[in-house]
């Protein structure tokens, strides 16, 4: 049996536009003491796994190879030619290993602090995975966050999965103390996951298998990929299976999915803010905020974004408009 860290790196990070772009999304931005979230993810898991599997798209797989040059573990790269969501991405990784091998599934764009607590959570997850459970990681919430899904739990048992709530519901979840943030991290045997996928989503399983069989050099055939239903692993398996366990994790976790979360991180490491909580990112040009509070000024070579940080979830709408019109700014 081997333990693999499967790093999912196909996201665009549209809520961090204009920093995050289609050709250079947030997981590859070197914003964290000169390193990217992608590199930090690989480093974080390197002490507990035997090998790394990266599942990424055609645009980024070369960059992934480059960033992992200093990691001494064996590495496998699976190239998705068409985005088909996380169920397919994880299935491809499971097909690439033996059925008894354990997969630790981690997105490539999460910031995790407190390595000791993280290692303890991973150890607990591996123990459960060896007993044929599908394990998800739930982060103990620190605030009523509306940008995350939630897991209702008791001990290590999952009672329900909840969609991203409104502010009132998020506060209720926090007050009740029986809800965790859904981190999007998982741990399970490859064979157990594939059996559950086959049971709950047989079409997804069969189409993924067909595409995998005709892939060359672990590059997934484009035409076969388009036949795979696009569905997340949460909807396909985790919210249906009877084999789910959750690890309530106490490490500091942030998916850095919005400028509000990036703001919180940068402020915590000493990035400058003015007396009204305004922050500048990306330029040394003198910039002044007049009559504004908790705003962000984000500068790149070809775009400027000015936003109220509490509205940071709406940045995705700008990206979607640029995508609609095939803009070179996306």
Q: Could you characterize what this model shows?
A:
The longest helix is centred in the middle third of the chain and has 15 residues, at 115-129. The protein contains eleven helices and 14 strands. The protein folds into two domains: 3-133 and 184-241, Alpha-Beta Complex (Spore Coat Polysaccharide Biosynthesis Protein SpsA, Chain A); 259-324, no CATH class. It starts with a strand and ends in a 6-residue tail after the last helix. Strands 1, 2, 3, 4, 6, 7, 8, 9 and 10 form a nine-stranded mixed sheet that branches. Strands 12-13-14 form a three-stranded mixed sheet, with no helix packed on it. Strands 5-11 form a two-stranded antiparallel ribbon. The model has no long low-confidence stretch (mean pLDDT 92). The protein has helices at residues 37-45, 61-67, 85-95, 115-129, 167-176, 190-200, 202-213, 222-226, 233-238, 259-268, 315-324; strands at 3-8, 51-57, 75-80, 102-107, 111-113, 134-139, 150-154, 157-162, 179-189, 244-249, 252-254, 279-281, 295-299, 304-308. The radius of gyration is 20 Å and the shape is globular. Helix content is 32%, strand content 24%. The chain is of the alpha/beta class and 330 residues long. α3 (85-95) crosses α7 (202-213) and α6 packs across α7. β7 (150-154) and β8 (157-162) form a beta hairpin.
